[in-house]
Structures are given as structure tokens and as C-alpha cells.
Amino acid sequence: QVQLVESGGGLVQPGGSLRLSCTGSGTRFSFDNMAWYRQAPGKERELVASITSRSGTNYGDSVKGRFTISRGNAKNTVYLQMNSLKPEDTAVYYCNADRTVNVEGAKVYFWGQGTQVTVSS
Length: 121
What we know:
Elements: E1 4-7, E2 10-12, E3 18-24, E4 34-39, E5 46-51, E6 57-59, E7 67-71, E8 77-82, E9 91-100, E10 107-111, E11 115-119
Parallel strand pairs: 2-11
Antiparallel strand pairs: 1-3, 3-8, 4-5, 4-9, 5-6, 7-8, 9-10, 9-11
């Protein structure tokens, strides 16, 4: 079974940086699209950034210019470089990925368990 595992979260002061990593289990597959979402307590899960198999990217308005999403050479990995962190960035960050599984183009979706990012002075 494919699993996504996130790492790199932690406690950082405002203005600091963190780099999140997400890796899919196994090396015999690749993902099409990957993304980072986040969810703060009492709030809905929101898209932070996404990246396609061709490395096209999309960012949520609140993180544009501060966060950068990228993929490793293997397409089962994705990173999120977070700079100029703000207290409102505090959330659990989740990795998401999809794969095409049949000739009709159907997709399956995978989620990681999340990694906590806390931005506080």
C-alpha cells in the first residue's frame, strides 16, 4: 500500500524558515500531481501549494512569495520551503499525491499523516 510520510515540521520564530519533505513509500511508482495542504485548529483544510508532473506550480494567496514547492528527481518526493514564516502559518501540514490508475484516466489520491508547524515568538 502506498504511504506518504511528511517530515521537517517544528517550532520556529516569526520570520524563520522550515523545509518540509514528503516521500512516498516504494520506488516502483511515480505520482502525477503532488501538493501541500494545511489545517489549523477549528479551520478548514486549505491548499498551500501544488505541483504537477511537469513542475507547474500553484500557490495559495497567503503564501505567495514566501513558500516554494519543488519535486525531487524521483517523482515520489515533494518539498516545501517555507520562508518568512508568520504566526498564521501555524497548522498541521499534509502532503497529497495522485496517480492515474487506468486507461480512462481515473485517479487515486493519497494523504500523509501530517507534520506540525508552529510559528511563535
